[in-house]
UniProtKB/TrEMBL annotation:
CDD domains: ABC_TM1139_LivF_branched. PROSITE patterns: ABC_TRANSPORTER_1 (PS00211), ABC_TRANSPORTER_2 (PS50893). It comes from Comamonas flocculans. The keyword Cell membrane applies. GO terms for biological process: L-amino acid transport. It comes from the Bacteria. The lineage of its organism: Bacteria, Pseudomonadati, Pseudomonadota, Betaproteobacteria, Burkholderiales. Keywords: Amino-acid transport, ATP-binding, Cell membrane, Membrane, Nucleotide-binding, Transport. This is ABC transporter ATP-binding protein. The keyword Membrane applies.
């Protein structure tokens, strides 16, 4: 049994059919990338897994438990944490308050020291308000808010978007460390090099359908697939 098993997911916005029979599986401790052009349905897939969008049909099993159709907070309680592209942090609260608040309703939570050992920068900035953080710091905080709840799996929607290359390198290192420590991660990433650097396997979405699945090592050797589905 895989940690996450998704099959036959069809999702809509109103009458618009966006996802067509999406299926994927993620093993415990894996880092998997979800790739595809703008509008391919990547964010909708994440939202469908996290219960933000309710799939019309299909199955989403987290650690053997069916969560499709459940509410977003129930799925979060079950151990799936979505880190939205918009990096939702509370601007009026400081860094530490943001982290503590995120952990309040969690069954198990990480001690703050564990969060700060991963993100020393957040420790330095712990009394700064969310609004005073740089984009990179906000992304660290958004990830910290997910991790503090001791998730079984985290979904990172374009975690490196709009960040300076030096910050991206820093975050890639953090993701590597998390993966080494056994954290299961699925990420959406437009930056193919960054995705390949992190993920051992990838799925490619095109027009709401999974059109390719394989290891990133294999994908690197298939420029025609990259060009067909990811080329601009
Ligand atoms: N709230 C919404 N209401 C209606 N249509 C939407 C909504 N959000 C997304 N869509 C449409 O659904 C399709 C898939 O969008 P989605 O955001 O999942 O794609 P994506 O692969 O994540 O692309 P991007 O990188 O641009 O976010 C697009 O055609 C988009 O216009």
């Amino acid at each position: 049994m895989s940690l996450l098993e998704v099959s036959g997911v069809n999702s809509y916005y109103g009458d618009s059919h966006i996802l067509f029979d999406v299926g994927m599986r993620v093993e415990k401790n894996e880092v998997v990338a979800l790739l595809g052009r703008n509008g391919a349905g990547k964010s909708t897939t994440f939202k469908s897994l996290a219960g933000v969008v309710k799939p019309k049909t299909g199955s989403v099993k987290l650690d053997g438990v069916e969560v499709a159709g459940k509410k977003a907070h129930e799925i979060a309680m079950a151990g799936l944490q979505l880190v939205h592209e918009e990096r939702r942090v509370f601007g009026s609260l400081n860094v530490e308050e943001n982290i503590v608040l995120a952990g309040l309703t969690a069954k198990n939570k990480w001690p703050l020291e564990r969060i700060y050992s991963i993100f020393p920068r957040l420790h330095e900035r712990k009394t700064s308000r969310g609004t005073d953080l740089s984009g990179g710091e906000q992304q660290m905080l958004a990830i910290a808010r997910a991790l503090v709840r001791d998730p079984k799996i985290i979904l990172l929607d374009e975690p490196f978007e709009g960040l300076a290359p030096v910050i991206v390198q820093d975050l890639i290192r953090v993701c590597h460390d998390l993966a080494k420590a056994g954290q299961t991660i699925v990420l959406i990433e437009q930056n193919l090099a960054a995705a390949m650097a992190l993920a051992s396997r990838a799925y490619i979405l095109n027009n709401g359908q999974i059109v390719h699945e394989g290891t990133t090592a294999e994908l690197k050797k298939q420029p025609e697939v990259i060009q067909r589905y990811l080329g601009v």
